[in-house]
Amino acid sequence: MVESQRTGVVLCRCRGKASDAMLDSVSAFLQEKRPGIPVTVADNLCEQRILPDIVQRYGVRSVVVGACSDLDVGLHFWEGPDQAAVDHCSVRVVDMLAETECWPSLESAEERLKIMLWAQVRRQDWAVAVPESSLKARFIKPRGSISRRRLLDAVLPRYQVIPYVWSGGCVGLDRCGLCREACPDRAIQAQGNAPFIDLATCRGCGACVVACPHGAISNPCFTQDQLGSELEALLSTGGDSLRPRVIVIGCQGCMPSPRRDVGPGVFSLEVPCLAMISPWLLLRSFDLGAQGLALVSDQANCPLGIESCPSEQYIPFARELLKVWDIEPDRIQCHDGAGADEFLGGFAERVASLPPTPLQMSEPCAVPAKGRRLSSLVAGMTGKLAPGSTGTVCVPGVPFGDVTVESNACTACGLCELHCPSGALRFTSTGGSVRFHFEHRLCLGCGRCVEACPEKCIEMEKVLKLDALEGAPRLLLGGEMAVCRQCGTPFAPKAMIDRLRDRLEAAGISTSQLDICPECRAGVVRRQRRQSVGA
Fold first, then answer.
1. DSSP reduced 3-state for 298
2. Together in a domain, 342 and 412
3. Which of 102, 213, 215, 487 has the greatest count of CB atoms below 10 A from its CB?
């Protein structure tokens, strides 16, 4: 958590449409959950300068706003990141008016609003500054009928946040390049061996964020920590009257409006595009207590114009894991196109007819702050639901792989290790021996090792082996090191030297220096040069 972050909450009366009693109840709830949090009740936040003035007065770094759908945060802070009172990207809005109109029962509306606002506060605990290099000015095409005022507002630019590359975490395009392969816009460009994102080309879908195994690419407004904290608050806050909890994940601009017939326990989680949906997010939802998960999109009318969604490949994987854990796989459903309200209503009704999952009452798994979070999550959930399981998951889209090596052909040259983007393959040499290890929990199943092997002796299978996610790495190969005949230092795998000797001898080339280490070989060359100069 970013300790220096201070979040404020601003609630709008919306010209009397939101009752003072409800606003007082929501304010008291938030201050009970987080003592000292500044909560302000105002009116007419849609008018210029009211919201920025409140933000500036309290000096907060991020803001959660409860208002109505007419509030356009981008309009209030459109001047630019160096002029606005607060970074416009750190403002989160909950449509309070839509909730109160959808739920005539004040109690239901209040409970949902408390959860939704608290979820945004928790999310803002992880808010980070957005670098200017990630801000892209664009004009928003209005959807549906709009007023004259909104038509004039439409000529003003809005700032879209796109992912950026943290060079300190990137291993380079020559070793990885998975981000470039995942980008549907070909917006990942190369600057030497380092990737960068072309602002003009990138649409901000976030597919590269999911593809990067090192977390070197990030959308600062939609990090794993932010989404995870929001999910946890949505699923763990509130009482039984809002259960079973169903999470609806959809892209911005495609999410349906709240409707009473969908059910009080259905909550939304917005992302820039469903391309940002990772297998970690799918499984984490259930680990935190979700009883159902729906992915909603409208690709025909997608604001980003993304024709196909890379996240679709992870749905069979998540469903198969639920089946292994004896959880109904139909708890994950997808919907594309019109009729999302009817779909969600029917889905929530089916989920309500199922018994609660064992995860509803269990403690969430502890996941590391960095590294391969998915492996830790899967191992933790398996430990809770199917301890000692030796099951395998082998379906399209499984983000794991298993590697085997033909030991008679492998020369332990190490090229596969150099091309492995996740560090799943590792060579170590101690004394006169070399060891080749494989760590299943780190393997992405990308196949880079197979492509790099000059002996074509590596095979990779796209599969998850549940019993191999924990414990020591598996030994693939063990062998001797060749020892320099002059200094006695081990300098290379013996299998590689023997293979080179066979090939050189077959070509009629001398092998007299193969048994000499590079340092001694360099000394031989220097002596030969001195002798030739003296002659």
1. coil
2. no
3. 213
Contacts of 466 (CB under 8 A, 6+ apart): 324, 378, 379, 382, 386, 389, 390, 391, 392, 393
Report how far residue 531's alpha carbon sits from residue 534's, in angstroms, rounded to the nearest whole number.
5
Number of domains in the chain: 4
Domain end position, chosen among 121, 143, 165: 143
Do 475 and 495 lie in one domain? The reply is no
Cβ neighbourhood burial of 352 (10 Å; 0-12, 13-18, 19+): middle
Residue 149 within a domain: no
| Amino acid letter, 19 | S
Q: How far apart are CA 450 and CA 462, in angstroms?
A: 12
| Residue 391 located in a structural domain | no
CA proximity to 497, closest of 485, 11, 369: 485
Question: What is the C-alpha to C-alpha distance for residues 330 and 64, in angstroms, rounded to an integer?
Answer: 34
**15 found inside a domain:** yes
- Mean pLDDT confidence for 250-267: 78
Q: What count of other Cβ atoms lies within 10 Å of the Cβ of residue 525?
A: 11
The residue range of the domain holding 319 is 243-356+377-385
- What's the CA gap between 502 and 431, in Å, rounded? 25
How far is Cα 16 from Cα 253, in angstroms, rounded to an integer? 27
CA 225 – CA 369 distance, rounded (Å):
9
pLDDT in tens, 243-252: 899 999 988 7
Q: Which pLDDT tens digit goes with each residue over 152-165? A: 555 556 678 899 99
Answer whether 370's CB lies under 8 Å from 215's CB: yes
CA dist., res. 68 & res. 13, Å (int): 9
In the numeric block, which tokens belong to residue 62?
Answer: 């991020």
